[in-house]
Structure formats: structure tokens, C-alpha cells
Amino acid sequence: MGLKSTDQSYIFNMLNKNNAINNTVKELLRAEDVKRSSIEEQLMIINKRYNEPLKREVLRAYDEGKIRIKYSKEIKLPTAMPFILIKASGGVVAVISLSTYSYKLEKSGDMSIDPKKLYTLIESAYIALKYTTNNLRYASASNLLTHGSIMYANMVYSAINKKFNIGMDKKKSELVMYFAAKFFMINVLAKNIDAMEIINNTAKKNCKTLSPMVISEADEEFELNAYKDIAVFMEELARVCDIHGLNVRNFLSTYMQMYGEGTLLGLELFPYFMMNICSAEHGAFMNNQYMFENIIEKDGPKLYGVFVG
Fold first, then answer.
1. Which helix (H) or strand (E) holds 130?
2. pTM of whole model > 0.85?
3. What pLDDT was estimated at residue 2?
4. CA–CA distance from 168 to each of 57, 128, 165, 254 (Å)?
5. Distance between CA atoms of 258 and 238, rounded to whole angstroms?
6. Which string of b and e fits 121-143 if b means at least 16 CB within 10 Å?
């Protein structure tokens, strides 16, 4: 198992055309940090009113400088990528851009941002740090594999079903969920294919009616190389599951309409997938909250719990 880098993502490279994101990141890192006094009111509300299990760890990481917050009216990262991880002298550091979700009040210089959004951003960046620096531990956690893949598969299936109305075909529907769950583990989590038995058995939890023989036959037909990125995966999914017209362009368009622009990178990069789960869990409305509430109802808290303690 290896840690997947951002530039291995098809969607990131699509958004980073002509080095757009890379150049923005360079400018963002040169911007001044947001002063604690500028978000003091929000931090006070978080301290007093929030009872999230990770709250103390999250705020301690911020106090210790492991999470830095930047703001520039002119510099904005994509909605789907409000934080990044960088190497610093003391190790890996998370850098959050508030530009998409807040603005600076002219008179006071304070940041105007919903405390739920601020907490979600800081917590998501903190979880990204934990996941990145302890990747072998977290990416092998059974609850992450099981509940993460179930939610991911449901989201992918729902977008395809909305566009191509495959819901009445049980075989087609369950195979889409099966292969989507495998994509989550092989691509998003970069789980080693030597653990294919674990991957397959976990993915089969999405199949309620299909026989092992039907799944095995479809698996044999599905090219392993198709898990390398979301574009190739959609082409192979269309072929093996006989979904005429499915391609990465119409899938991403439908997915974005359903769940929000801020969910795109989560299709290939786990820290941003987790950011959207955190947003939905905390009611931060950084994505289509109502669509996510059905997705996370049973599995969200169990995935979130992987990072507690």
C-alpha cells in the first residue's frame, strides 16, 4: 500500500491545466497567515458549544502550528481543495485557504465565516494530516474500508442511475456498486492489489442479490488497469456493465450537480472525500447537505470514528 499523491489524480490534473492550481498554491503560501484574533469569536463558539470527539486534538494542532490558515481576497483555491499539505521543517503542515468560504470585514479586519465551516475546514485538514502521516494504519482499518467504500459506491451509483436510469436492473446496479467500491480501495486508498481477496470481499458487501459466480465472471472481464484513474474506470464500467453513453465527462457533470462542486476531488483523493463526510456530519453545508445526509446516515459516524483516538 502506498500513499496516493495529488498529482496522480485525473481530476486534479484537469483542474490544474496550465499549472493553474500549482501557481495559486505558490501565491497562497506567500500570503499572510490569518491572525488568531481575526477568528477569535468563531474559536470561542467552537470551544464552548461544540462537542465533536476530535475537537481538542484539532484545536491543539492549530495552536501548535501544524495547521496554518491563510486568506487573500485575490487568491482562491478550487472549492474542492480548500486545504493542502506541504512539507515544512517540523514535518508535514496543513495550509487552509479561507477565501472560498469567508471574507474579511473592512472595519475590524475580522474574518466573517460560519463557525461550523471553520471547524470543518480545520478538522478536515487535521484528519488529512493524520491519514497522511499514519497511512499504513488508517488505510488498512476495516471500518474505513467497509464504510468508506459503501458510501463511495452509493454516491457513484446514484449519479450513474440519475443519468442512465439503471435502477431497475439489479445486476447492472450491483455491479456498478461493486466496481465503485473496488475503485475506492484500489485507487482512492491506493490499497495494494496483493490484498485483492480483502478488496473483493469488502466490495461484495454492496451486492445483495448477485451470485459469487456472476461477480467473478464480471471481475475477470474488468481490466485491472482501469482502476488507474476515474476516466479510464468510467470507460471500463460502461463496457463491462453495458451502460451505453457513460463517460467521465457526463459522470462528473451529473455527480457535481447532485453533490456540489466541492466534492469532485473526493472522487480520487481520500482527504477531500473525508472533508465532505465531515461537512455533512457537522451540518456545515459545504456541499449538498441534503444529498449527503442519506449517504452518511449509517456509515458516516463509523468512518469518522476511525480517526478518533
1. helix 115-133
2. yes
3. 61
4. 46, 38, 8, 19
5. 20
6. bbbbbbbbbbbeeebeebbebee
- The whole-number average pLDDT for the span 121-146 is 95
Nearest residue to 171 (alpha-carbon basis) of 219, 220, 211 = 211
295 — pLDDT class (breaks 50, 70, 90): very high
Query: What is the band of 3 on the pLDDT scale with cuts at 50, 70, 90?
Result: confident
CB atoms within 10 A of CB 80: 23
For the chain, the distance separating the N- and C-terminal CA atoms, rounded to the nearest angstrom, is 23
The Cα–Cα gap between 164 and 50 comes to 41
Which of these, 162, 163, 139, 143, lies nearest to 151 by C-alpha position? Answer: 143
State the pairing for strand pair 103-104/91-97: unpaired
pLDDT per residue as tens digits for the range 214-241: 999 999 999 999 999 999 999 999 999 9
